[in-house]
Hints:
Layout (H helix, E strand, L loop, with lengths): L4 E4 L40 E11 L9 E11 L4 E10 L6 H7 L1 E2 L3 E5 L3 H15 L12 E5 L15 H8 L18 E2 L2 E2 L1 E9 L2 E10 L13 H4 L11 E8 L5 H9 L1 H8 L8 E8 L12 H21 L3 E2 L5 E2 L4 H10 L4
Parallel strand pairs: 1-2, 6-7, 12-13
Antiparallel strand pairs: 2-3, 3-6, 4-5, 4-13, 8-9, 10-11, 11-12, 14-15
Helix pairs in contact: 2-3, 6-7
Amino acid sequence: MASSTRRLYSPPVSEVPPNPRGPRLRELGLRIGELEPGATDSIADVPGVRVGHVTVWRDEPEPPEGRGIARTGVTAIVPELLPLRAGVAVLNGAGELTGSHEIREWGTIETPVYLTATMAVGRVYDGAVAVAVRGDPRVGVDDVVIPVVGECDDSYLSEARLVQVEAADAGRAVEGAGGWPFDEGAVGAGTGMSCLGWKGGIGSASRVAGSHVVGVLVLANFGSARQLRVAGVPVGQTRPGGGRSQPAGSCIAVVATDTPLSPASLERVARRAGLGLARTGSVAHHGSGEIFLGFSTADGDELAGPELDALFAATVDATEEAVLNALWAAPDVVGREGRVERGLPHDQVLELLRDRGVL
């Protein structure tokens, strides 16, 4: 099993709980939408796309004696070849995706896509520059790059006032990147994230659309507890969760495809990630940042018009399942000030889904 997860420790340390927490929901019989997934039901089904994590998990005294409790990290989505055509869409903009102006202007990405905590964007950006320079000696001499770094706020569980994520972690995430299987849930950038009243984090899924595949990876950190829906079942009204009570959070969704598309069409495809979030219970709260990036690994005759409909459906379904995979994989996590985000209770949710006839 090729694992791309790297964990940084600074004693004294409590071990990261096992990840993932058993079979995924699809393996237990849940079906989201009518389209079939790719071979791994992950963004790695798009040829040439790899995922790497660095998880920063440490328990130290509160500042200034130590760095406090760290539940944070970096996740990198690494295409084999760059630059690639890309598009970006925003549902609610209380968040950040660096490089988004260049993507809108030129329709390309020039670096891997990095995900991290809000207060770590600058350090990961610096690390991404270092990765680019190592990969191409012309960077910074003949031309420059604008790295793509997205963020969500993990400060409910993780001490954000001090440096937890280092610039070098961006490079470590890229170096450790691989195909499926990669960890989901409380790992990498998702280590300290909360979603719909439960522990959130990293999730991924894919769908086959004709001769092409669409893969989605989410950093899920959004929503309020009572709004959680699983395959249309209002789980949040029965199991409202706890932990973080403020609904604002954010979600970065990265949509990859091997379909040749223009930047304008990729923006349209990426925008459909918002419909997938809505199915899980998101209303894109005022203080939340729902930001979506789409990129294509393919050249050739570009699909357009009604030909995009299958890709739209694939993106919606894969985004919905990616969020559920993040929730399903994430365990209980104790963070700063003794705060606890519980992992979604498997047995109770499965019983409810069976009662509603969706399993």
